[in-house]
Structure formats: C-alpha cells, structure tokens
Amino acid sequence: MQLFTACGKDIDFFEDFRRRYRHAFDLYFVQVPENLRTIAMTESMAKKIVSFDIMTVHGLLQTERYARELFVDGQIEAREDIEKFVQARMERQTIMRRPNRPECLFYVHELALQTRLGDAQLMEDQYLRLLFNTHIIRVVPANIRSAAFQSKCTLYEFPKAAPVVFTETNMGQLFAQDSAAVERGKRLFERLEAVALDEEQSRSKLAEYVSGLREDSHDPRTDLA
Predict the structure, then answer these.
(1) Number of domains within the chain
(2) What secondary structure does DSSP assign to the chain, as a single string?
(3) CATH code assigned at 148
(4) For 67-98, what is each residue's pLDDT tens digit?
(5) Share of the chain above pLDDT 70, in %
(6) Looking at residue 79, what is its pLDDT?
(7) pLDDT given at position 36
(8) pLDDT at 218
(9) Residue 53 domain flag
(10) Is residue 18 part of a domain?
(11) Distance from the first to the final alpha carbon of the chain
C-alpha cells in the first residue's frame, strides 16, 4: 500500500492488483480450464518451455483447423465458445514469432501422431507444421509405452523467477512452483531425452506420416473424407 500510494495509485488500483495476483505466491494453483489468461501470460514471460504431450499436439504448434477439430470432437465446450477458444490459441502462438521468443522443446508421443482428426488434409497440414519445426520437436516412439502412462506436462523457466510445472485435464489446470513438483517434471524430461528420437530421426518419422497419408489417398478402398 505504501508503494502504491507513493506511486499515486488509489485503493481501486490496489484492490484490482490484489485480485489479479492473489495466487502469485501459492506453491500449487488450480484454475478452471476456460481461464486462458494465466497460461498465455506464463508462456509470454518464459525464457524456456519444455513440454510433453501424449494424445495431442501442443497448443503452440497446432494449426487452426486441428485446434478447432479438437474442441468440436471433444463435445465438451459450448459450440458458441469454440471460435473464441481457437482464436485465443492462435494468439498464444505469436510468441513463437517474436525476436526474443523463448527457447522451446516439444516432446510429442507417437500416439498423438496416430490419432486422426478430421480429414486427411487437416492431418497433412498438421504433420507439415511439425515437420517444418523439427528443430524444436522430438518424437517419442510408440513402443516407449512407459511414457504413454505419464501425464502431459510443461516446464516453464523464467529469467528472474522460480520455474513452474504445468499440467491440465478437462476439469482444470494446475500450476506448481513447489520444488518437489518441479524436480519430478525435470526427471520426466530427462527420461524423455534418453528415449526420444533425435532431430533427424524425428524429421524422418514425421515424413513417414505425411507419406502414409498421401499413399492412403490413392487407395480407392480408403475413404479419407
């Protein structure tokens, strides 16, 4: 209050600040999945993002059609809200085009590549998006079953703040600053680093999925629509 008063701020400013940052120092913070502001702010402030997804491509790498199909196919969000969520996800991706963008590494389990959404063109576009970003992608092979039993996880590191691990379900989003939780996240990524394909191998694996789609499209017995 003394600081805000010295800066000429009134009680309304203080109350708004307190509401906005009341959970800033909680070791564990849970919020509803519809709240998109916190995750966008976390990504924009991070200097490094390391993520693992099992069944879907990470939101920062999704094409617009892929993101929309995820919401539509999930049949959980109200249809009138889907476009709002899709556009919010696309806006989050602007950090990937910043000159000072965070250092990123995305571990994608092969199960996510095998999960077909929409038509063949949608999946080809998504595979190509990943293929053009293989410098920040590592594919975890399907035969690494132990990785498939892990929860999706993201580790954020910041220039002047403690790291945070993040996970989410359809029911909520969890941010953890607790040192034990962060250490568990780091151990997960150490394990993934040991079993994931390297950059060149990941590129080859993604190219296989693109080729597989194109071969299927020439099979008259296959309905890709």
Answers:
(1) 1
(2) -HHHHHTT--HHHHHHHHHHTTTTT-SEEEE-TT--HHHHHHHHH-SEEEEEESSS--GGG--HHHHHHHHHHHT-S-HHHHHHHHHHHHHHGGGGGSTTPPEEEEEEEHHHHHS--S-HHHHHHHHHHHHTTGGGEEEEPTT-HHHHTSPPEEEEE-SSS--EEEEE-SS-EEEE--HHHHHHHHHHHHHHHHHS--HHHHHHHHHHHHHHHHHHHT-TT----
(3) 3.30.870
(4) 999 999 877 778 888 999 999 999 999 999 99
(5) 95
(6) 83
(7) 84
(8) 57
(9) yes
(10) no
(11) 61
Distance CA 113, CA 205 (A): 10
Domain that holds residue 210: 23-217
pLDDT at 20 over 80: no
CA distance 135 to 138: 8
Nearest of 208, 210, 61, 196 to residue 142 by alpha carbon: 196
Distance between CA atoms of residues 182 and 145, nearest Å: 23
Question: With contact defined as beta carbons under 8 Å apart, do 210 and 125 qualify?
Answer: no
Domain assignment of residue 3, yes or no: no
Q: Is 166 exposed, middle or buried (0-12, 13-18, 19+ CB in 10 A)?
A: buried
In this structure, is residue 184 part of a structural domain?
A: yes
Q: Rounded mean pLDDT of the chain?
A: 90
- Tokens linked to 131: 């293929």
- Beta-carbon contacts of 142 under 8 Å, excluding residues fewer than 6 positions away, are 109, 110, 111, 114
Q: Are 1 and 14 in contact (CB under 8 A)?
A: yes
CB atoms within 10 A of CB 77: 17
